[in-house]
Amino acid sequence: MYTYETVTAAIEGLRKRGYSIDFNLEVDKVCCSKTSLALGPAEFEITEVYRFEGPSDPADEAIVYAIESKDGQKGVLVNGFGISADEIGEEMVEKLAVRH
Asked: Residue 78's pLDDT band (boundaries 50, 70, 90)?
């Protein structure tokens, strides 16, 4: 597993390792706004997760997900947590749950 100090460093590191798609989170899927790619929870796996907590500012809190589709397409999803977390469906909440 890799270690990163910042969200930006995590994204850059993942890009260098082939995670080139920028995913956005919707209620029941992750989508790429530059292509027609849209993946439901059963169509992708989370291969890596990096959680960042701001030292004093909750706005600095984020989770970086490395995502790989069932057919091998790789990308990155950045999402806030806590107050800034997006509202999503129950199945997606379960998929994105950070497990330690």
From this structure: very high
- In angstroms, rounded to a whole number, what is the distance separating the alpha carbons of residues 15 and 19? 5
End-to-end, the C-alpha distance of the chain in Å comes to 13
Q: Is 44 helix (H, G, I), strand (E, B) or coil?
A: strand
Residue ranges of alpha helices (H) inside the chain are 7-16, 90-96
- Alpha carbons 10 and 4: distance in angstroms, whole number: 5
For residue 45, give the H/E element and its range: strand 44-52
- 55's CB contacts (< 8 A; 6+ apart) are none
Name residue 83's amino acid.
Answer: I
Q: Quickly tell me which residue has 């995913």 as its tokens.
A: 23
Span 57-67, pLDDT tens digits? 555 688 999 99
Which tens digits make up the pLDDT trace of 16-51?
A: 999 999 999 888 899 998 888 999 999 999 999 999
